[in-house]
Amino acid sequence: MARRTTSSSTGSSPGPRNRTPQPLPRRRRTFGDFLKAFLAFVALVVLVVGVPGALAVKIGWPLPHGVPSLDWLQQEITVGTFIHVLTVVVWLAWAQFTACVLVEVKAALSGVGMPGHVPGAGPSQLLARQLVAALLLVGATAASLTPGLSQLGHSIEGNQKGTVAAAQQTPGGLFGQQQEQAAADTAAAIAEQAAHAASHADSGSTAKQGDTKYYRIQPPEGRHHDSLWEIAQRHLGDGRRYKEIYQLNKDRTQPDGSKLSEASLIRPGWILEMPGDAHGGELVEMPDAAPKVSEQVQQQIHDYAKTGDHQQGGGSQQGGSGTQQGGDRDTAHIHVPQQRPSSDEGGGSDTGSGNQQQEHATSGAEADGSSFGLPEALVGAPLLAAGLLGALGRRRRQALWQSALGAVGGRRGMEPPVPTGSAADAQDALLVGADPEGVRLLDLSLRGLAAALAAESRPLPTVYAAWLSGNGDLHLQLAQPAGKPPTPWQLGQDQTFWMLARTDAERYEDVDTAAPYPGLVSLGTMDDSRLLLNLEAVPGIVSLSGSVGDRAGVFASVAAELATNGWSDRMTITLVGFGEDLTPLAPNRLRHLDDVEALVETMEAETRQRRGALGAAGHDSVLTGRTGPAQHTRWAPHLVLLAAEPSADDAVKLAELASDAGRLGIGYLVGTESGDLPGAAWEMEITSQGKLLAPLLGLELDAQLLPVAQQRAVVELFVEADPERENTNAAAPPFLVDISEQGRPAVYARLVGPYEIIGLETPDGERSPLLHEALALLLLHREGVHPRVLSSALWPRGVTEDVRDALVERLRGWLGNDPDGTPRLGTDEAGRLTLAKSVVSDLDVLRSLYHEATQGKGVNSRAVRGRLLTDALVLVRGPLLADRPQGRYGWLTHEIIDAQLPLLVADIGLALSAFHLEKDRAEKAIEALNASRNSAPADERLWNELLRATHATGDNDRLKRLAADLVARSGARGLPPRTEALLDELLPTWRSGVAAVG
Question: How many CB atoms lie within 10 A of CB 513?
């Protein structure tokens, strides 16, 4: 994995940050600083302690000691009365100021978010803030109470202490370190130091205490706390080398008696031994430190050096060896969840996708060098691709039904338009990359967990993130320990991890419960594990820095996945500064606002409404409203994606709104150029190399992106499938067959009903099912099938390129050549596999017969129209591929043929019914309609036409029975409005008649 180095040139990014966006200049504390701190302390003591003491001693209790009578109101107002009233006012002012002091102290010590606003405080809170800041500016003790702003253990409302400890165990706290790669890098760095030290020892230059460099951790500058990352960034040139500093100093006694045991927890005043190549003016080189530090600090460094014999000289070698052998015991147990050994590494016939994400990535890498690659951003995003593909299929089905119901003269657009160009590539990439089974299991697992906790009367734990490991296991990372998880969930590597094995997830069944964590969204992968961050649970804002173009890819990916994912019910996604063209993906979820001002106004109202709703319902957070009997749509998340950097004033307003957002189910992802954003709980950076970095979260992800080109192509697919869009070219099928006697095909496949192939010998051996399935896929896509789409359809778990190519060659040999020597399986200019016109299916013939009857020769010849429609209806022998083997043809779930075929059969039945009714042959019309209903039983058009045909027979009792059958079939939903209106016209007494028949 390539390592990123940061440039110190002007204008360049100083490197990844979290909470501490840029190393701040350090300076020695002056006498004036200490004087200010002393005066601030005196002022606080006088105002917080002295004022109430003086009031109590000098004035006493200002309020009446008993219940006043009416006579008391008529007494003369004396000086004593005025003083008592003034005393009450002073007591109230003191209480308000004290509250301001407590709020500011809490915010300064925790280092998270903006201080809470005390109602009506104004100048009082400003004074308190200045006094507290002046006091804490030189106070190391207060700063040592917190591990700094890099913690992720802060819960929505006052997290437990145990949570902080769990979240601090790595510089990532929440997410941990890159497993083997990071350990190898650290070991290599330490080994290099050991070799360097050994070479000095061999040459006779013994490492001495006086040659060692030290660094004294500085007190905080305002709310900026020092961190190992920044120390390494300043003095070693690379923040990732913080591990070397940690290894040199862990478990050594510090001047205050404590020890460095967690890489994210350092305290002002501590001494750190630095690697030999450290540089910078803040370092102390003993014994030449006299001009730089006081005698007290020199003595502290001398005492500290005595504790590090095992870390110096040859001890460095030992440390390096120990790291290589066993790893860092303090940072190794919070990391990307380790994968369990797969139980089916040898392969098998299972078409599940346990390793689908990894397999897809491998398949994509194999094709990088080919002449027909696909957009890797979509191929490598299995959850995003599955969501987009599912939403696109629903959109196309909706368009088909609306086209059918709005058809004029019985003619409609039978097919959605076939994508071309970049849209076709995007669709193929979605087909290759999608992992619908993974999405289904994730949804079942989360809802199953919610149902199990509700059954035990336990609340949902706050989940910061979910990891999907390479073997399909699901790991939830909790904000704080929540006890033992319900069966079949297990505790993970510590108390803040709940784990569900894929085999256990596959046993889950659908449950009627609300989606517990709809705000989960994929950010990228690390060590073959995919990270989903729960945006609505973040205790503040998530900021994203980087160039505008790089940030745009992240924002588009997050918006698209949130809009189409399969593990949420309802949500609102507000896009600001980007994404107006993304709204076609999910018009009911996505909305676009023009500017930050409109966003602030909207979110202020939303925040007030949610607080009131939670209070009225008696819930402390949206999580308690998603379980049990109180499942309401108001607990759906509202996620704000703000790509444009807000102004300073707007940033402060957003920070205030976000301070309570996690509890309310509101999440904020905000873009920034500098990375310095008020109220940012978690800070991330996207690099030009596609890496998503959050160093103090322990994250270095291969980011999931949706670049502009792929974004436009995906949006084009949705726009083309818009039900409201007029499509003038959809009437003709994509492939017309010569239905004359001279047009007999060389190879004929029956797909509508049981699968049969005429004109080819049945292949021998185990390859026959694969060849049949491949041919069916090609027959359903006359426009061509990308080889990677073919391989992902036949082998959902992935397959190597040579196996795929071997199958294609066998298929080409099986199909043979036309009389002119042209192979019946060819390849077009884009590299897609296509079938010759001599290879057809009954579905091709069915479409061609209907088209010819309604728009070809049958338009001007009634006899031809009747014959063609009758021939077409005879071809319908049942559902598509009726006898397909279980476990195969899973790719049909991505297709809309299951919606297209019934509509086509209904169209044929309607056209043939109209043909017979023109000559008053009602019984023939009813016969045609009933034949069509066998394949399209739910088509409202067939029932309505059947009512008209039955009415044409003049048999009123028969019409009543048909109406009663219709009502019985409709169930609790009732009849569609059009059907009711038709019954009112044909049988005005149908309601009473139906009751009588019933």
Answer: 20
Is 666's pLDDT higher than 80?
A: yes
**pLDDT tens-digit readout, 689-720:** 999 998 777 788 999 999 999 999 999 999 98
Residue 454 and residue 516 in contact, taking contact as beta carbons nearer than 8 Å? no
Cβ pair 669, 542 in contact under 8 A? yes
**Beta pairing partners, 880:** 752
335 Cβ neighbours under 8 A, 6+ residues apart: 170, 176, 177, 178, 179, 493, 698
For residue 99, the surrounding DSSP H or E stretch is helix 79-110
304-313 in b/e form (b: 16+ CB < 10 A) is bbebbeebbb
Query: From the CB of residue 378, how many other CB atoms can be counted at a distance below 10 Å?
Result: 31
Between CA 800 and CA 210 the distance in angstroms is 59
Whether the per-residue pLDDT at 13 is higher than 70: the answer is no
Rounded to a whole number of angstroms, the distance between the first and last alpha carbons of the chain is 73
Helix ranges restricted to H, 465-595: 502-505, 548-564
Beta partners for 214? 273, 284
Helix (H, G, I), strand (E, B) or coil at 424: helix
Residue 473: which pLDDT band, with cuts at 50, 70 and 90?
very high
**Angle ∠(473,479,482) on CA atoms, nearest 5:** 80
Cα angle value 793/721/410 (rounded, 5°): 105
Q: Which run of H or E residues covers position 104?
A: helix 79-110
Q: How far apart are CA 46 and CA 94, in angstroms?
A: 11
Euclidean distance between CA atoms 297 and 301, whole angstroms: 6
Is the pLDDT at 998 greater than 60? The verdict is: no
CA 938 – CA 396 distance, rounded (Å) = 18
Instruction: Kindly state the tokens that stand for 105.
Output: 């102290």
Reduced to 3 states, what is the DSSP secondary structure of residue 532? strand
Contact (Cβ atoms closer than 8 angstroms) between residue 418 and residue 783: yes
Over residues 160-172, the pLDDT tens digits come to 333 333 333 333 3
Alpha carbon distance 200, 196 (integer Å): 6
Placement of tokens 């479409």 in the chain = 847
**Residues 25, 221: Cα–Cα separation, whole Å:** 9
- The DSSP bridge partners found for residue 700 are 693
Cα separation, 637 vs 639, in Å, equals 6
Query: What is the structure's pLDDT at 54?
Result: 81
Q: CA-to-CA distance for 118 and 656, rounded, in angstroms?
A: 12
Rounded to an integer, what distance in angstroms lies between the CA atom of residue 717 and that of residue 391? 11
Other CB atoms within a 10 A radius of the CB of residue 777 amount to 19
Q: Which single residue is written with the structure tokens 């491998």?
A: 362
Beta bridge partners of 674: none
* Ranges 96-110, 645-659, 669-683, 826-840: which has the least confidence: 96-110
Structure pTM? 0.66
Q: How far apart are CA 639 and CA 562, in angstroms?
A: 9
The beta-strand segments (E) located in 737-789 are: 747-750, 756-758
Spatial CB neighbours of 797, under 8 Å, sequence gap ≥ 6: 347, 350, 351, 352, 353, 354, 355, 356, 359
**What's the one-letter identity of residue 382?**
P
Helix (H, G, I), strand (E, B) or coil at 909: helix
Ordered alpha helix ranges (H), 218-332:
228-236, 242-249, 295-306, 314-326
Nearest of 840, 609, 586, 814 to residue 715 by alpha carbon: 586
- Residues 813-847: b if buried by 16+ CB within 10 A, e if exposed: ebbbeeeeeeebbeeeeebbbbbbbbbbbbbbbbb
User: CA dihedral in degrees (123, 126, 131, 137; nearest 10)?
Assistant: -170
Parallel, antiparallel, or unpaired for β 747-750 and 756-758? antiparallel
- Tell me the DSSP string of 732-743: S-S-----SGGG
CB atoms within 10 A of CB 400: 24
Cα dist from 416 to 406, 786, 845, whole Å: 15, 19, 18
